Amino acid sequence: MTRPAAPPPGYAPAPAGPSPLGVFFGRVARGDWAGSVKAALWPTGLIVGLAVALAIPSYGQGDDPAVGWSDRLRIALAMLLQAFGGGFDVRAVSPGGMNTGGYGGASDYGDTYGDFDPGGQGQMSLSLVPLTVTVLWIGALIIGARAVRRQGGGLDAAVRVSAVAAAAVLVLGLYAQPEIEDLSIHASPVLATLGAFALSLVTAGAVLQRDVAAAWLARRPGTLSLVRACGTAVRALGAVLLLCGLVGYITFAAQDGVSGEAMLIALPLLPNIALMVLSVSWGGSVEYDVRGRADLIGSGTDHGAFGLGELSDAANDWALVGALATGLVSALVVGVLAARRSADRREQVTVGGVFLVAYLVLTGMSGLSMEYTGSVAEFTGTGDLEFAPSVADALLFGLLWVGGAVLVAPYLARMTGSGGGSPAVPSPYGPQPGPYGAVPGQYTPPPTPGAYTPPPTPGAYTPPPGTAPGPQGPQPGRDHYPGPDGPRAH
């Protein structure tokens, strides 16, 4: 009796291949890093150039400045990196606290400051987002990303460009932390790096994946309409902020006692100034809140606002008229762009809604806030200060102005002869109606070519034209006229 043969050995499982994520990061690592570095040089050079320009003036220090050019450069970098979420903290590094300067019972302020720790260190945190830097960073990154796209870069190239740009911000943030006498400045470089990476990834990805996104959106008309509305809202917001920024900057430069150094510092804050001008022009207010106690501002709390009424009292009625005219023109810009670049009323309303949301977000980011505790330089106290446009007023008056502009501007555009929405985007599902119900002409197919007639076979019988063959068919050797079985002649 023979034993059964052993079964054939099973096949070993094939080794698992790399995951899609692993393949993607492999392409990132093996890609063109030289081109990514060139693309990241645009925004990095922009930041360095702005910092150098801000560090050139001595800011009234005279011929023997206590803060040299290199320290001013590092301070300017720390201020500019707040555009990506970085911080600006000033700390006292020498021992001694609130009472080292003589703030005790013998102080002019009595016993107010006797409760502070005499051995504590002071700290002051300043939060001010220079939106000009954020906008210019995005623009410079778009220029660099377009060069990468011409070389065939994809989403992996966007990751490389973002990584290089974020690494440059990290290096600048580590450098932007000087120590001047008994003060040290901290710029929160890690937070600035993360913010720069996220902003760069979104911007570079949008540029490099533009064709892919366009093909994807072409199959989704609803999403395409939303994206087009967002683009129109961004255009309108840029135009409005440019107008209000010019008005605010010219008004600031015309004030008495404004130096060239102050005008230079105001340049990175142009969108911030524009948002304040727009808020006041639309009927809102710019508010300030002070809480705490300090040697410069006293103790307790203080709240105030600056609106159209305060503008009329501080200047004259013509300033009030100019502010209202600025608000009216800004609203009409939004409405006219929405009317001219939208396919239908629904898209116009979407443009107004996106504009309002973006305006509220930027308004919340445009203010200045400061927290202080202890003794920093000549500033002593504890508390916080905030100076910013009112978001609640921006929401209320923004709804009124933007809603009215979206409602009225299409009729104004028609009256001036410049109305009409943008042409409908071709759809793979057939012709779509125009923006105001106009239906384009129907597609007429080309004429169908005639049926194919095979060439005659040699030796075969070919009936003369116009003669129908008999039911039996022609026979070789017989006459070509129909026989008795064929059709009768008429």
Written description of the protein model:
- This protein is of the alpha+beta class and 490 residues long.
- The protein folds into two domains: 30-100 and 113-216, no CATH class; 220-424, no CATH class.
- The protein contains 14 helices and eight strands.
- It has helices spanning 20-30, 33-55, 69-80, 131-150, 155-175, 189-208, 210-218, 221-253, 260-266, 270-281, 308-314, 317-341, 345-365, 391-415, and strands spanning 89-92, 123-128, 179-180, 183-186, 286-294, 298-306, 368-376, 379-389.
- The protein has an eight-stranded antiparallel β-sheet.
- It is globular, with a radius of gyration of 37 Å.
- Residues 96-120, 422-443, 476-484 and 486-490 have low confidence and may be disordered.
Short description, anyone?
The chain contains 14 helices and eight strands. The protein has 490 residues and is α+β, with helices and mostly antiparallel strands.
Which terms would index this structure?
490 residues, alpha+beta, eight-stranded antiparallel β-sheet, 8 strands, 50% helix, 11% strand
